[in-house]
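INFO worker-7 received task bundle
INFO bundle size: 2
INFO processing item 0
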Amino acid sequence: MLKVQDIQYVVYGVGDLDRTTAFMADFGLLPLATQGGRRYFRGAGPHAYIYVADPAAPVGLQAVGLRLAHAADLEQAARIPGASPIEDLDAPGGGRRVRVTMAGGLPLELVHGIEALAPLPMRDPLAINHGLQKHRVNRPQRPEARLDVLRLGHAALTVPDPVAARDWAQRHLGMIVSDALLVPGAKDQYLGFFMRCDLGSTPSDHHSFLIAAGERAGTHHISFEMQDIDAVHMAHEWMRSRGHAHHWGVGRHVLGSQVFDYWWDPDGMRIEHYADGDLYDSAVPATTVEATNDQLWTWGPPVPDTFFQQTRQG
């Protein structure tokens, strides 16, 4: 069975490339190159790019890139019903892809062979003195204020039928469910699924996808990992000082455990900084919970009503 290894990038149509570039620079992503009209952004990690802005495309999600382990996996991917042939990637780092459409209409690109870059300088994660466990002695805590976005961590996707999309991702991508979300009070009516890559005994992120019910195929948010909790808070203060539109945070999620902070980009699309997310290996079974507000966060500001909209209104 084909098994994707990780999420690698997203492609978004943007209304104003310069505005998006300025926002992403404040958010912690660096423009790498402009090629074929698209602008490619990297983080501090080794991926050649993790966000692609396309001013010629309609505003919103255009594709999610998922990494395959082996070149031979591309041949298997090309046999998915409706898949494209194997194509060369005309993008920084080269590589090849197969384009597929997930049940519900979500565009995916299964990729292999994109050349990695040297990681950028970043500060080390902080050693924390917990109440009963002390990890730092004779060393004051003076973290440098940096916006080190490391990588794309996950995408929260919307489809009219999340059960069909879950089944498709299990069958064709080898993904597994971490948590299933039920309509409150229901026993078999699902609102969504947190899904992770199946790497066997190697831990993977609690979710690379959240597949949730929505009126149309699209995205609820994309999420980028930072070094630690201090980095999320420092980024929060920086983004506020730059006048960007805040949405929700800082707080800690229940499912996945991430410390989160959500912002609106210039096109009204939701984007998240996070740190300290859960990792699971394949032995951890799925849980089923009711999709109530209590399952969204353990601490932080109240959930805004607009959190359940796909895009910013007004």
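INFO item 0 finished
INFO processing item 1
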Amino acid sequence: MPLSPVRPRRRPPRYSAGVVEASDGTRSRRRRRRWVVTVLAALVATVIAVFTFTVDRRVDAGLIEEWQAPAFYGTTGSEGSAPPGTLVRSERLLSAPTGSEAWRILYHSTDALGHDILTSGVVVAPVGAAPPEGRTIVSWGHPTTGAAQRCAPSVGVDPFLLIEGLGDFIDAGYVVVAADYSGMGAAGPDSYLIGATEGGNLLDAARVARTLPTGASDRLVLWGHSQGGHAALFAGQMAAEYAPELVLEAVAVAAPATDLGSLMNADIGTVSGVTISAYAFAAFSSVYGPSTPDAQLTDILTPDGAAAVPAMAKLCLFGQNKQLHAIATPLIGKYLTADPATTEPWKTMLAENTPGAAALPVPLFVAQGLTDTLVHPDLTSDFVQRARALGVDVVYDEIADTGHGEVALRAVPKVLPWLASVGGGPR
């Protein structure tokens, strides 16, 4: 009788994590892959749902807050005068980034001529109890958005968008306050590149932060980009005399506007240069014109250039860029009739609003993108050299392959540890 072939014994199926494994493992691997894909898909869906909820919450709240904003900024003239830094009113912003709470603020400040004014901004603080010694304040100076009331960063759907590094500062435990600058948001005198006005606005915003339930201490650091760097440098120069109750720890700036005469001359052959100088010429003639009758736009600008300035000053850099380009482009090469940096009284006005005439009493961090075509690296380098000659402790961070728009965000990872190293940590 022939022998039957020997059949291998079948291995009983194994059970692993609830999955039946076939003897050859093929079905098992397929099922494991399907299981992994299913789990990953569920996780991705959850993340998307949470992210969408967060974004939708902020957008929905922001749209409502933008719609309600005009009433908040309206003034009647009955507010009277009050010490700078006095809060007129505030309102909670439900569009605050996750992990923070925020307020829109209207407060008293002063302009370059010493007048009591009202200006606006936002305050953002971490959620939860502050440490016993309180939280350090970061007073932020925003880059150019325009000069008209509607160009104020606090007015839009997302009033936090232009606060570069906001999430990092909040996560680190700082209170962040962002002034709009006078004439933006609330009605008031022009402030574009007028150092004493911008600087006072930043310092008074920090004062307001201490009156809200933010846990803010008296410790202050200043942080600004472009026009905001100009504002932060002036606030640093003014702080000891203007706001002696605040303890200034450090100043950090990214691509700051420094030597205004040289900056205008370097940029005047571009649309951006014509636009920015129009904002400045409008502000200077408005603020200083009444006391300086010979500060006439027609002394330095062509007739077409002088006629264009008021219209450009009413337009915002974001959202109305096309209109600005339409006005500015034909003026390239046909804008100036004289150099404002050498023509009085413009020469004196530009010099008085150029930061660096006095040494900062605290350490200074300066970041500059090396491919910046708006604030040129050589101008920032010259400013750093002058500051060091005055005895200022300066850290200068030159960032390769970085233009004007990206420099502040790229500097934040170095700004935070630097602040901690010089005593400006969040505590």
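INFO item 1 finished
INFO post-check item 1: Residues 26-73 form the longest helix (48 residues).
INFO post-check item 1: The CA atoms of residues 182 and 188 lie 6 Å apart.
INFO worker-7 idle
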